[in-house]
Automatic annotation (TrEMBL):
Main location group: membrane
Organism: Caenorhabditis briggsae
One GO CC term on file: membrane
Taxonomy of the source species: Eukaryota, Metazoa, Ecdysozoa, Nematoda, Chromadorea
Spans through the membrane: 12-29, 49-71, 80-98, 104-126
Topological type in the membrane: Multi-pass membrane protein
Entry protein name: Transmembrane protein 107
A GO biological-process term: non-motile cilium assembly
Pfam family, one: TMEM107
Amino acid sequence: MFTRVDTLTKYYQCLLGHFAMATIVIFDQTAHLEASIIGGIPVAEEARIGFTVCLVLTMLGIIIEFVSIVLEMPSVVRSLFATSSHTIATCLFLLFIYDAHPVSHFWILLVLLSAPSFFLALLSLFRIVGHRGKQG
């Protein structure tokens, strides 16, 4: 029904979209953080740092997923899971930015939707490195 190449292209497109959203927000985070605070209170430095760390971890996870799919073509199931996960994450990411959600919602998004596919990619990388180490 689905081939590895079909699902891989969609997986790649979803990763690219998610990465683009995180990149755009990381360079325009001040406006978002100020909009998410009620009452015109100045943005705390901890909120800026937390938001930046969350976005950087999201981008790092996506880069690791890119490397993993370059080294080994993922299975159809993994591609479909990651595609749906990153699509939902990107849509919620956009909604959270538009509605000026607090920083904690971005952490929840990272843990629930980005981390599972990141860990699958990380396991794949460890398996590839371990397999190549045994051959060499």
